[in-house]
Amino acid sequence: MIWQKQPQSTTAQSAIESPKGELKPRYDVIVVGGGANGLTCAAFAARAGKSVLLLEATESLGGACQTLALASGQKISRAAHLIRHLDARTVRKLGLARKGFRFETQSLPTIALGEDGSRLCFSNSLTATGGSIVEVNERDAERYVVLYRKIEKIARAIGRDSNRRARDYTDKRATARLWPEYPKGLSRASQKLFQELAVSSIGHYLEREFETPLLRGALAFDAVMGRSLSPYWPGTALNWPASLSGRMKGGQGAIGLPSDGMGALPLALAKAMLRHGGTFRTERKVTRLIAEAGRIKAVELASGATIEAGQVVCAFGGADTLLQELLVARHQTPGLFMPPVMPKGTTAKLNLELDGLPASVTARARYIIAPSLEAIEQAFVPSKYGRFSSEPVMEVVFTGVHKGDAEEEKDAQPARQAASIIVQFAPYDLEGGWESQRDRFIARCAATLDRYLPGLAARIVGGELLTPADLEEKLGIMGGLWHFHRPVIQSQAEFDRDHGRGIRSREVEGLYLCGGDRHPGAGVRGTSGRLAAEALLKDAGKIGRK
Amino acid sequence: MNRFDVIVIGAGVNGLLCASYLARAGRSVALVPHAKGLTRSYSSGWQSTNGAIFPTWHSRLFDFGSEASRYFHLASFDLGAAMLGGGVSFQEGSGAFVRDADPAAMAERLMATSPKDANAYLNYLQCLTRLHKPIHQSLKAGPRNSEPIAPDARAFFESSMRDVLDSFFENEALKSHLAQSATHAALGSMGLGPYAPTSSFALLRDPVFRQTTEDLTRSISCQRLERALTDLVGRSGGLIVAETRLEKIIVEGGKAKGVILTSGVELRSQHIVADVDKHLLSMERDAEASTKVSRARGAMAQINMTFDAAPEIHQKYTALAQRGSCYFNGGLENIERAYDDWRRMEVPARPPFELVFFPPDERDSRELSASIYISYIPTKLALGRWDEARRFTLCAEITNEVNNWISDFSNHITHIETVTPDMYESCFGVAGGIWAGEEQGFDLWLHEQIRTDRLSITGPGSRLFEIESGWSATQVAIELLGGSALQGAA
Questions:
Q1: Interface mutation target, options B442, B451, B456, chain A, most CBs of A under 10 Å
Q2: Which residues pair with A12 in a beta bridge?
Q3: Does the interface predicted TM-score (ipTM) exceed 0.90?
Q4: DSSP code for A256
Q5: What is the pLDDT of residues A254-265, one digit of tens each?
Q6: Does B449 touch chain A (CB under 8 A)?
Q7: Are residues A381 and B340, on separate chains, in Cβ contact within 8 Å?
Q8: Which domains does chain B have, with CATH numbers?
């Protein structure tokens, strides 16, 4: 075993105390679930003057957005660690920057690590990226530059489109249209490419376009990141532009690294909510949603207490499945509908405490260990049958690495470092159970890390492994599926805008759904929270006028 | 006279169908064979060395489309239509698993082991019945005219077969039976396994529920269909070019203007419809573009056999045939593992397969015969290539497996031959064996949209149309004849 115990101090983020005092018997809006979307929704509703109560089942707010403070004082993102798609309107309108949510950088480069020690660096300068690829393969570099320009156009269109207004079940035109639409504003040529990507697998697509295994592996990794997908499954190709669809200050598709870990985001959101008069309680599990005559009425807590509400927001993933249990007045005739499908996650998180950085870590970057398409496929296959990858693919972010590699900066580096690592693939239901195999999996991860970043394993002094099952238990993420709560390939999700999985509940008036899976696309976004708030405020206005 | 309104390249069933529409509407049509050295089309079946013709799976389970059936009154032709039964699957551990074609009888059978599955089974068929029609109508109507469909239909567009079947059933034998019988050998040719997202769409082809819906035709003999359509084209004045084949498509100014045949004859036309493999077609067009089209990969092998005339054998196998096909899959996980092997271009250790008996009266031959359709058999092998020794090994393994369940099966075989996907390629000109590209998995949804959009391959005005199913043949005909041309004649 690499380390004997968990990091000594595991205070999950500098959490705000749950407000004390009696709860009111009735709130205008009750938000169930305190992740980024729930908090965003609650903050916007409070800002509009509603009395708002947010209920979180676990002991801390944030969901997948948590900060872990290590013994050395290093702060590390416990689950999600990078931001690519955060809803800019939310940040601006709620003044999150003033409330302590800042970025260390909004243009984190990506370094793909090859088996033979070769490296590719993807930065926001296409010229620089091309230059990095030229060193490995000239033809690929040329093709990459040409293709990337086209992909970027699609990414931009997807990004623009996914922030549009809420689509909802109650809108008749929006009920489950079979045919997808292109994102708006695509030229005819871009539409053709969009089509091609939508039906292709990223694996076959990249095999046609590029020769370098490392380039293929790096691009395919982003297309399957966090999901239970094979790079050879159709539809995965569109995940490439979709992963670039966010727009940070660093540019289209740039990657943001939050200061002080991802927990700073829910903290800032909670501050905004409290400032506008909203309140929240942690460790309050909602066990029932009570509806009367097709309209939401109240929520019932595990303690048996009921709290009335004018509007209720379900801000957790997998609401389709959970609602069946929660919703008492479900109108559905049992059996007539397709039963909801709820898959389990296959992505684990490894947080390592290091006593220094190996020489192989040269820059502040996102390191990708996915040397080829075959490597990703080989890591994926065992997970289909309930086993973990013997050579996992990973995304590694080091905290406390300074920007340049100048000597004086290196000296200024703190003695203790930390590595935040997303590891694929580790199934939720591991054959034989996780308990007896955790160490073996950690050893596999460490061995793989050490091969691509030599000297790293020797630096490990502690850490924690969060398997999908742990993520469910500790952070309340249903099914341990923390990247994209949806059994779909993203390409289709991007079409989903018109496909009827909306913000408003189809069955109960006054019930809204804004888990991460309500909005097409992966990543920490807060978009569905904002859209739900917009929808419920609009509806409340209508009721008032009546 | 070398000028036509339309030239149809590829004389398979779909090409014939499109030509029939056009010829019947009074257009001058020439039908040009495409594949090299090809005298028969893929859909007309495999001609065995002893002269018997065995259907490729495609022709047995042909899903022709109701518009075409109605328009040509195909019901009045003798197409050897046969009901598809529920089938029997043979699995280690659970023994022979019988599926009744009658839903109520099947529910009763399931009730004995699990009341939950019995209920779920009826619900499952109800869901398929309710959702299948709007989905198919919407697919046919195209993006602009489709009606909204029920939100829960989305499961078929996003979930894997495993997830959907798991959400309904407990019995593993039932799950794998439903998966395999819904897809038949097509499972492999989708280029997907049952664990892949979107693979659940194939469940909409379930043979039992299809019997209850009038929209889809039953299994028919494609040989007879081909004969019927050839006859139709001829009678309507269409020209069927024989003994020569396509050499080149003439493209002038970005538009397809005609074809040159291997005999040197040049035919000109207003429009060209191509019923050929996409890969081959793009090679005809330009070599550069063809590198962009992913190489199709075959995924099915076939073992054809005839049996001796022992009466008890006839009786036994005819009885089995009435139950439907015999399935061998080893469970859903084994099917997925076979997919893994296929993707690595290896022959799976235990590939799933389907055994179909052909009673003498159902087919044109007088003998009792059978075909075994084996899924996930690669066209090209990672190591070595297909040869007689490898085919023999495959054949021996498969027949041994059947022997375990049907005693004396091998002993009554009088003639047997194995057809691997590479042979389809060389004999039928089907690139990579049976059509199976990565897009096939999506075929059922997005793929069809792409087809619609690609009706004109290189943009409007290119005059080159591509078809690949009975449905798209109909669509192209409608496009060429203008809107409602087909409705009046129906």
A1: B442
A2: A68
A3: no
A4: B
A5: 999 998 899 999
A6: yes
A7: yes
A8: 3-79+220-295+438-489 (3.50.50.60)
